[in-house]
Design a protein that fits this description.
36% helix; Hydroxyacylglutathione hydrolase; 9 helices; single chain; 6-stranded mixed β-sheet; alpha/beta; EC 3.1.2.6; metal-binding; Metallo-beta-lactamase, Chain A; 14 strands; zinc
Length: 258
């Protein structure tokens, strides 16, 4: 059953995570940009990789996928509208992947364009694998999509249950919290979370996964409707943003230069 599955973040490069879901025998990997740490983890535990889930085409998310698939026979799932090195099961969004790699789990595929045009996320067993769309206390940059797209994508993820585990692909939390605290200096939830994250990183432990509920409390991109954020944006830019989308656009621009 799905509750027997375990979730493990494997560090890769300087700040990436490859997320592993496994039952002690079989596993799937999300966004394996580097094959070597995944290969090592599998070998140490005698676990077989059966499926690979890709969220978007950037190399730090795809670089190890083909190599691992060739070595293990794993099936690669990924966004249909992105230039992937290989994709066995192209996805657009709204599909349900049942038992990928014979693991007892089903994922709903969510289209989340913005960071890239065809970015997708996977939601199942209370876990959200969101790539570079949603980070703890932040969100992805606009490389290919529009602010309208990314804002709508984040609103889609924000509507998931509060206890959903947010499995982002990068350890950006402390950097994002520095910006969040600048935007909302009187937000005690941000201050408390930053202290907890600092202790985690000091012990070389991940700050992830977060939860949707926590992000509603600390992530400025989930809080654009707040009066305090509107006032801070007016102070910073000297203009009044009246709609949530306008506020989001300004907030993303501010974060880009922070």
């Amino acid at each position: 059953m799905a509750h027997d599955l375990q979730l493990v973040p494997i560090p890769a490069f300087t700040d990436n995570y490859v997320w592993i879901v496994h039952d002690g025998r079989s596993a799937l990997a999300v966004d394996p940009g580097d094959a070597q740490p995944v290969r090592r983890w599998l070998a140490e535990r005698n676990v077989t990789l059966k499926a690979i889930l890709i969220t978007h085409h950037h190399a730090d998310h795809t670089g190890g996928a083909v190599e691992l698939a060739k070595e293990t026979g794993a099936t690669i799932f990924g966004p249909a509208n992105e230039p992937l090195p290989r994709c066995d099961m192209p996805l657009h969004g709204d599909e349900v992947i049942d038992s990928p790699g014979d693991l007892p789990i089903a994922f709903t595929v969510i289209a989340v364009p913005g960071h890239t045009r065809g970015h997708i996320a996977y939601y199942g067993n209370g876990w959200l694998f969101c790539g570079d769309t949603l980070f703890s206390a932040g969100c992805g940059r606009l490389f290919e999509g529009t602010a309208e797209q990314l804002f709508a994508s984040l609103e889609r993820l924000k509507a998931l249950p509060d206890d959903t585990a947010v499995c982002s692909a990068h350890e950006y939390t402390l950097k994002n919290l520095a910006f969040a605290e600048c935007v909302e200096p009187d937000n005690d939830a941000i201050r408390d979370y930053r202290a907890w994250c600092e202790s985690r990183r000091a012990a070389n432990k991940p700050t992830l996964p977060s939860t949707i509920g926590r992000e509603k409390a600390v992530n400025p991109f989930f809080r654009v409707e707040r009066k305090t954020i509107g006032e801070r944006l007016s102070e910073h830019f000297g203009t009044i943003a009246t709609t949530p989308l306008e506020r989001f656009r300004l907030l993303r621009a501010w974060r880009d230069r922070f």
